[in-house]
Amino acid sequence: MGWFPMNLLMVGNSMKPTLPVVIVLEVEEQEQYHVGDIIVFNAIFWIKFCHRIVSIDEKRFTTKGDNRKKSNLLEKNVPIRKIVGKVIL
């Protein structure tokens, strides 16, 4: 595994009320990820999302922010290679 655990600054309201709008997250790579895990993943370019896994289908993950009604396109079919790690609460 890589350089873990790592700390990442998250700014956004998609995980309210579980996580505050601004927080430093401790993230750790896992061998397996499960529905309900809060993960950080590379969404597009240099942008990372911090969302909860809501479903897994053959090594592809669908995530959603706790403050969202449904998943958007960037949160669906996330391959495991894009996952940075699980948020350690």
Question: How would you describe this structure to a colleague?
Answer:
The protein is mostly beta strands. It has one domain: Umud Fragment, subunit A (Ribbon), CATH 2.10.109. It is built from no helices and seven strands. It has strands at residues 6-11, 22-28, 38-44, 47-57, 60-64, 78-79, 83-87. It has a seven-stranded antiparallel beta sheet with strand order 1-2-7-3-4-5-6, with no helix packed on it. It is globular and about 30 Å long. The two termini are 20 Å apart. The model has no long low-confidence stretch (mean pLDDT 91).
Overview features:
7 strands; 89 residues; Umud Fragment, subunit A; 7-stranded antiparallel sheet; mainly beta; 48% strand; 0% helix
Portion of residues in beta strands equals: over 45%
**Uncertain spans, ≥5 residues at pLDDT below 50?**
none
Calculate the mean pLDDT score and round it.
91
What is the name of the CATH architecture? Answer: Ribbon
The quaternary structure here is single chain
Order of helices and strands: EEEEEEE
Q: Could you say which structural class the secondary elements and strand pairing correspond to?
A: mainly beta
| Cα Rg | 12 Å
Number of helices: 0
Structure in a nutshell:
The protein is mainly β. The chain contains no helices and 7 strands.
